[in-house]
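_Full entry_
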Amino acid sequence: MRLRNIRRKLEDGQRRYRSNKRRCEDGPNPDKEEEDGSGTTEWINLMKRLRPSTDNISSIKAAMQKTFTWRRSWIAKHSPSLSEIFEEYPHFLDMPTLLDTEFGKMFEGKGDLFLRRWEATIIPKLKAIAIMETGDLASLKDMENQNEDEKCYTMLVVLTHLLPPVAMSRCSVKFALTFLVDFVPAGSSIASLCDDCSSQTNQPQLICVGNLRAAAKQHVIVGKSDRITVPLEEGLTSAVDKLFKLYWVCNLAYPCQLSSVFCFFEHIYDMPLSTSRKAKVLKLSSKVKASQFTA
């Protein structure tokens, strides 16, 4: 009893057995954030060294899952450039489906809303609203003979007319749309898409290589200022979906010429509208909701 009472009066540093036992239980406990960061760095280094082969896809996806919280915090706090993000996480480039996964974790349950709604619901309603407001039936009448990519592009034109650029941008509707989708001749190399020094956009955009009616066309996300290209093996609707997700995954500002159009996309994804200029978007959104027209 005397020894026990003496031990109670000892300083923590003098209680060798208890101190050693705590270290053993807790493990080597430096700063926990530093420990987590070290583990994350190991996963990131692993990803950089794995080629996107069939054998490695599951490991890459697991590594992206493990580093999700770290990545979102890094992007939010430090606002890295597009090239810096893709240098750290290169598989966003060669596995664009990771943009879907990342966006789906950021906005649970909203990742497939654009693909579900755009062609089946939004296009026929926008078409009906455009005819009712402008009476321009002729330009929309030929949609029945268009393929899916042409219909998508036609409705992007309609949407840009309904939500035109703000006056201060001094930008025509036709020119504004090039900040979302632009075209280059068939046969153009993907590497050459970043060489256009005359381009006035610093934000990522879609480039269609070839004609929308051609079977051999290809869509590419291009960030010219960062010299980034992301080839996509899908149609225009899916490409627009990928581009929108890239803006959110990489924490990028919308091109000011199309801020209202991108804001309307937020409505399709059931996201809170982020732009301050949303009066026209809210008005159009309410018309779409109230519309009884179907495909």
